[in-house]
Task: inverse folding
């Protein structure tokens, strides 16, 4: 179980592309260069596919049959879920920033975190007290580069318990894991789902060789990465404490589905139609130094405290799913495909204990 938790946390960090503090700080520094207002706009546009993909991943893999367990039998399955990021979300149109302007005005797009290639070259301007009304170009830099993250994945262990009257209770839980050292990260996940067979209320299909259930689930994922972004050496410093810097990411997701399955010998064919919703937030916590111009016209450090908390849009809408499960004694293997704005794949291996 601990090994699974480590895989979970490390997978998240690697897929975010910040497997070291150096890379994370470069990302944060690039986002914050234009100040708080520009940073919030940039962070939302750049990270939006990441929030959508992660919400889609959490809404996958809650079932591999419509048939609930008999009381009090159980199923323990390790799901591995993937969400594929569409091409349309691999770049964004550069908005009108307050302090940033493209070095080449004709360039109007830049890669998101899911895209590839270098970010668009920008000029950073700051008000100059010695020349009111005329901003000074104090730096040239590129927007964050695309990391080529075309797919997001996450391993999730899940325990399902059969209750009474054709009802299953599913639980996902991974306690917070601290990963010290160069990564300095932590991650946790929990979720709960309910599946209830409705075939028993449908007299016209009660004897039919299929199972029909309604299923709903809610889950949360939280992670945190420690940072240590220091001020520019050539600028006048402050006495701020930069040891409290953290990059925090949180996702909530829920889904409701109508399930249908049919068992033939050792194979179970299943499908679903339903609705999913997710939302996520990305927060920069702590003090962060950015370079500005002081009243004397010198480069100076201005400290931003808890500068950013952005809401990243989720994938909200209808979805459908088709899959197959193979059972041998008490062991199961399954795989399915989800049709949605962010298509998904779920595969897993489990131990299924039931009376038939």
Result:
């Amino acid at each position: 179980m601990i090994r699974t938790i480590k895989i979970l946390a490390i997978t998240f960090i690697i897929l975010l592309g910040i497997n070291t503090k150096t890379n994370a700080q470069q990302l944060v520094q690039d986002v914050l260069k234009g100040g708080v207002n520009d940073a919030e706009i940039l962070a939302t546009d750049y990270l939006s596919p990441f929030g959508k993909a992660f919400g889609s991943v959490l809404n996958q893999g809650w079932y591999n049959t419509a048939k609930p367990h008999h009381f009090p039998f159980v199923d323990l399955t390790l799901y591995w879920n993937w969400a594929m990021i569409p091409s349309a979300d691999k770049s964004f149109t550069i908005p009108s920033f307050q302090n940033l302007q493209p070095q080449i005005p004709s360039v109007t797009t830049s890669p998101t975190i899911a895209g590839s290639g270098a970010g668009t070259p920008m000029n950073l301007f700051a008000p100059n007290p010695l020349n009111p009304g005329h901003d000074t170009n104090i730096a040239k830099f590129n927007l964050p580069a695309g990391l080529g993250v075309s797919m997001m994945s996450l391993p999730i262990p899940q325990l399902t318990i059969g209750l009474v009257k054709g009802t299953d209770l599913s639980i996902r839980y991974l306690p917070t894991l601290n990963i010290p050292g160069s990564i300095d990260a932590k991650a946790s996940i929990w979720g709960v789902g309910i599946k209830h067979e409705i075939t028993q209320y449908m007299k016209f299909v009660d004897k039919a060789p299929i199972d029909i259930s309604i299923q709903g689930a809610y889950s949360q994922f939280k992670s945190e990465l420690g940072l240590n972004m220091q001020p520019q050496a050539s600028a006048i410093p402050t006495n701020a404490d930069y040891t409290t810097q953290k990059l925090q990411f949180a996702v909530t997701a829920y889904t409701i589905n109508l399930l249908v399955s049919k068992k033939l010998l050792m194979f179970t064919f299943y499908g679903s139609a339903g609705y999913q919703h997710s939302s996520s937030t990305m927060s920069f916590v702590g003090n962060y130094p950015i370079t500005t111009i002081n009243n004397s016209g010198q480069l100076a450090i201005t400290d931003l405290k808890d500068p950013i908390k952005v809401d990243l849009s989720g994938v909200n809408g209808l979805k459908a799913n088709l899959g197959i499960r193979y059972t041998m004694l008490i062991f199961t293997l399954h795989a399915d495909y989800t049709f949605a704005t962010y298509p998904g794949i779920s595969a897993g291996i489990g131990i299924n204990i039931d009376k038939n």
Remarks:
- Residues 36-58 form the longest helix (23 residues).
